[in-house]
Amino acid sequence: MSKPKLTDTLEFPSDLNVTKSLFGVGVVGLIASGIGYFLEHDQFFFSYLVNFAFFSSIALASLFFVLIQHLTRSHWSVAIRRIPETISSNLWIWGLFLIPVLLGMHSLYHWTHADAVTHDPVLQGKSPYLDTSFFIIRQVIYFALWSFLGYRLYTKSVEMDKTGDWGLQTLLRRTSGPGLFLFGITLAFASFDWLMSLDPHWYSTIFGVYYFAMSFQVLFAVLILMVLFLWKKGLLTNTIKKGHIYDLGVQLFGFTVFYAYIAFSQFLLIYYANIPEETVWFLERLNGGYEYLAYFYLFGRFVIPFVVLLPKRAKSNFKIVGTISVLILASHLVELYWIVMPVLDHHGFHFNWMTLTSFVGLGGIFMGLFFRKFKQEKMIPVNDPRLGDSINKH
């Protein structure tokens, strides 16, 4: 393990005060959405859910990334690992933003209506799982586990910065092993609860992997944009190098293919089987204007990124990977909108301003929480024994 040669300032500049601005924007967005609640409360909850699922996917993918890096003792990612560590460490706070979803369950989830369950044999069969109290208990379990993992991995990494105790690596790996197993189960069930149960008559056994594939693809887009932002501010320019962007570009390309494989597998099996209770879900989302959203995210998060990132040089071109990352983020939001909104707007696509204000509100808070914690500690894990290899190999 080579000794790192650090020439950058490792603290986030105190005069670069983005936190207050982000929190301010977030509060304004949430207030505007709150006003919308009194105008169209059903629309408010659906718009909120789209954006909650969007930012939660980034936080959860960050946690998975940290878990897998510790478990595999990865070298390449050490220099950038503090970014996803910081994001996932805020999951215990982010869980509070699930409360509006719980308060809006009656508007969001048809299976919460007792009269609907009484007259529907399908809902009666699923009632042991699709139960309001059990739903809330599950959410508490999910976020308790995720919060514990995110907070523990972050605090022990920071402790290694301060003490230089390399023995903490063993603790991090021992946490990551069972943590990864429990994370996979809870992520799958959370995706069932938040998104798939919006239409309780429909189900897909691959939906948990589908949500994971979406989330992990978009994480690499977020990491690329975060690194480019830090470079633009003159930060970590000699620590996070061009090779790291290339590695992130490779991962982004790889998980673009993985996402397409999972999404197409889900569609193809349902299309081929042609069972009415399964195909109706896609039928609603491929008519009434929703088909244009499907075309957008199909090209935006697979066709264009695949073609553009296929050449080796493209993965090292900052403008190219930055542009593709923005496109993938936009496509991810559109795809979640495409999944959620047809439940509310059965008769066709209808954009509502609360989707935008909820995005601004939750996004401002999400990024504000990140930068608030990111500037409290070193921007990289300075005493990780693999840091030198991560920097010098590039």
From TrEMBL:
The keyword Transmembrane applies. PANTHER family: PTHR43044, QUINOL:CYTOCHROME C OXIDOREDUCTASE QUINONE-BINDING SUBUNIT 2. This is Quinol:cytochrome c oxidoreductase quinone-binding subunit 2. The chain crosses the membrane at residues 21-39, 45-68, 89-112, 132-154, 175-196, 208-231, 252-272, 292-311, 318-339, 351-371. Keywords: Membrane, Transmembrane, Transmembrane helix. Signal peptide: none annotated. The keyword Membrane applies.
